[in-house]
Amino acid sequence: MMDDQLSRMNEPDPDQLMRSLDVALAQARAKNSHGGANRNTFRVMSIVVIVVVLLAVLAALQYMASELTERQPQKRATPPAGEAK
After folding, report:
1. What is the number of helices (H) and of strands (E) in the chain?
2. Per-block mean pLDDT, blocks of 10 residues, the chain (85 long)
3. Sequential DSSP letters for 47-71
4. 83: which of 58, 65, 71, 79 fits an S-S bond (Cβ 3.0–4.6 Å)?
């Protein structure tokens, strides 16, 4: 009989359980609310990196195109000696 009363005293009542659950949920919400700012920062930085890489690729392509136009052989007025007209 005494053991039964002791076990009932050690068990939390439903009100205590609800209060502890509310406290735990409030802490979890506070912890997760800062995650949104980090996610937005990560998105912005990702977009900036993508734009920088695209600009670098476009600059490299423009450089390669200018090099190709400079290296194209010019049309000669007279054909080389081995070629017939």
Report:
1. 3, 0
2. 60 87 91 76 96 98 91 66 63
3. HHHHHHHHHHHHHHHHHHHHHHHHH
4. 79
Render the burial of 63-74: b for 16+ CB within 10 Å, e for the rest.
eeeeeeeeeeee
Domain coordinates in residue numbering, the chain: 11-71
DSSP at 76 = P
Angstrom distance (rounded) from CA 31 to CA 38: 12
Task: Give the angle subtended at the CA of 19 by the CAs of 15 and 20, to the nearest 5°.
Answer: 115
User: Which tokens is 7 given?
Assistant: 């076990």
